[in-house]
Fold:
Amino acid sequence: MSLDEARPVNDDVWVVVRCFNEAEVVGDVLRELQEVFPRIVAVDDGSTDDSYEVMAATGVDAIRHAVNLGPGAALQTGLLYGLLDRDAHWFVCFDADGQHRVADAAAMVDHARTAGVDVLIGSRFLGRAENLPPLRRRVLRLAATFERLMSGVRLTDGHNGLRVFSRRFAEQVDLRLPGMAYASELLEQVARSNLPYAEHPVTIEYTKYSLAKGQRSLNSINIALDVWLNRLLRGGRQ
Amino acid sequence: MNGIKLVLVSSFLLLLVWAFRNRRRVGLQAGGRLLAVGIALLAVASVLHPDLTQWLAERLGVTRGTDLVLYLFIVVATSAAVVSRLRLRDLEQRFSEVVRVMALRDGALLNGLPGADRGTP
Structure:
């Protein structure tokens, strides 16, 4: 048996799980991921509960921010950690709140490998969104239109947290915006990279827990303003 | 609003946006500081010669000196607020980078370097 054959499947994939106060569910999420993905980095973004301890107990690579920096910063940290592994070729972004399915993540990695895309983003509108509140559905549709106008990226569900990146795209990711505006910032970087991207149908399961913790629809106004102001006033690096 | 006012207002707004986007250029920084010194000297002069603002206002097409002072104050205050916000954002970014480096370093120390467990061919 060759060394390549002996390696576990998805040995060149790092799953990045961002976590902020998800101690109740993150342990189960990580254990389910471990059945398919051997390399997982769980980033605790300054949680005030014992999320970090729960994550560390599962045996994944648990790292923590000393203070809360936001989801974009946590994703950036996770990607940089995985990029330290020179044999890492793919990166999966997976939420800690139990909304994503491991089977979808595995299917997306397979799709990305065979289709030759560098960025693959899950779409609940091509797949299924169980128990998605009607207002949230309309806001997400509006967000897709907003993203098309701002970045030129044509996606049905650009703010879906389940994503797969190739190494060459992950190396270009540089997230700086606060809060959930990082998702728009990411799409802008997809557009600027000129790398091939695509969508993949996924199932998002909204539970009482995830809906209670999720962002309010009104936050879309903050996101839009953050994105627009950043475009208008961004200066070069010092 | 007549045509020339529209052109002037639009030009100044675009100039402002350009200045903020290029705020790190040394020349612009120096220019901004010189402008601040100029406005401060103008303020001192208008205290010593109270008729100065009215004289300036008439030459610029503004009816009253106090209106000119108000317009200048709005420009200065808005610029200061935007500059402060941008500086704060830059500072937050630097802070994030420090927190990130600490997390990566501690993570690598605790878990071993990512990928170090792979057997070499």
